[in-house]
Design brief:
The protein is α+β, with helices and mostly antiparallel strands. It folds into two domains: 103 residues, Gcn5-related N-acetyltransferase (GNAT) (Aminopeptidase, 3-Layer(aba) Sandwich), CATH 3.40.630.30; 197 residues, Aminopeptidase (3-Layer(aba) Sandwich). Strands 1, 2, 3, 4, 5, 6, 7 and 17 form an eight-stranded mixed β-sheet that branches. Strands 8, 10, 11, 12, 13, 14, 15 and 18 form an eight-stranded mixed β-sheet that branches. The protein has a two-stranded antiparallel ribbon with strand order 9-16. The chain is globular, with a radius of gyration of 21 Å. The C terminus is likely disordered.
């Protein structure tokens, strides 16, 4: 590698140059290249930015963004925007950026939305790769769908809730997490998430609106589920983007969410997941989507809208894959990109 390339964690003072690099080298008009307030909301970390950057002659020629799963120093991290300038003259610079991130001592490094053509490279670097499974519950009260494309008979929803029917469900605020949910109980989970993560990622998000629900046993909050409602041509669907805690409560959530789906006329509920036991998902009323079949289409892309089944591939360096859980909102898969939004205060 060119000896003049200097790799380091970015400083706050690098923000403008990184944003310019995003706009010129990553994607023109991308929100992180145009909206500084949102850029700082997502990536600022005290006097640093969650970016590994390379500079040559004091000019950025490579970047690798990352997002943290908790406020712990050794949190798990997801990689995001990863780009090396064609003018860098260093074909290995991108790998050097990734290795620099891995050397920072984070609990695990992972990424969602990787290109299938790069999987062999990640395997060579020691990562495990995989595909998130997608599941859905359709609204059978609708005669026509504008978002989904369904040509086949869908199974009747089956909810097995008798064993834990004493638990109760409600929409929650951030204050419900504090003191009621035992985050330490899930310190083994990869990625481990804390209350600060949920507050910043969902409750305080400046652009997207999320609904956060909980299942309780008395005052104890057992599990947390997050949804985001998306719209296309005045039709809507409900997307489960995160699920954390006691996993056998998923059927309690879907029992109630299906009622909300029918009441509000959502076309379907869907969830992307890796690691969550499939029996739990199917017993909660979901049907597994066959992305290779044209019988059912449950879109992933809404900005812009694409009526196609889209698989989400991932990599991780987690040693114990049994503890791995990945959902739609992990990393940068459920974040605005080309939205024209004004700066917020």
């Amino acid at each position: 590698m060119n000896s003049k390339n200097v790799i380091a964690i970015a400083k706050l003072d690098d923000a403008d140059e990184i944003m310019k690099f995003i706009d010129t080298e990553w994607r023109n008009g991308h929100i992180f290249g145009t909206n500084k307030s949102y850029f700082l909301y997502e990536y600022s970390n005290k006097d640093q930015l969650n970016f590994i950057i390379s500079k040559n002659n004091n000019k950025i020629n490579g970047m690798l963004g990352f997002l943290r799963s908790s406020s712990d120093e050794n949190a798990s991290v997801w990689t995001t925007m990863w780009k090396v300038s064609k003018s860098s003259g260093s074909p290995m610079l991108g790998i050097c950026l990734l290795n620099y991130l891995r050397d920072q001592g984070y609990k695990s490094v992972m990424s969602s939305g990787i290109n299938q053509s790069t999987e062999e490279i990640y395997k060579y670097l020691g990562f495990s790769v995989g595909l998130l499974n997608q599941y859905f519950i359709s609204n059978k009260n609708l005669e026509k769908y504008k978002i989904a494309d369904i040509h086949k008979t869908i199974k009747d929803d089956i909810f097995k809730i008798s064993k834990i029917s004493n638990l109760f469900f409600k929409k929650i605020e951030f204050r419900d997490l504090e003191g009621n949910f035992n985050f330490n109980k899930y310190i083994f989970r990869l990625p481990y998430k804390d209350s600060n993560y949920f507050n910043k990622r969902f409750f305080k998000h400046p652009i997207y609106s999320y609904d956060v629900y909980g299942v309780f046993d008395g005052p104890e909050l057992l599990s947390i589920l997050v949804t985001r409602t998306v719209e296309h041509e005045k039709s809507t669907c409900m997307r489960i983007v995160d699920f954390y805690g006691q996993e056998d409560t998923l059927n309690i959530f879907t029992w109630h969410l299906s009622k909300i789906m029918n009441l509000k006329g959502h076309e379907y509920i869907d969830i992307y997941s890796a690691g969550l036991n499939e029996e739990i998902i199917l017993n909660a009323g979901f049907e597994k989507l066959d992305v290779t079949s044209g019988d059912v289409v449950i879109p992933n892309y809404f900005e812009p809208f694409v009526q196609s089944n889209i698989g989400i591939r991932y990599f991780t360096d987690a040693n114990n894959l049994a503890n791995l859980r990945i959902y739609k909102a992990d990393g940068d898969q459920d974040r605005p990109s080309l939205l024209n939004v004004e700066d917020f205060s």
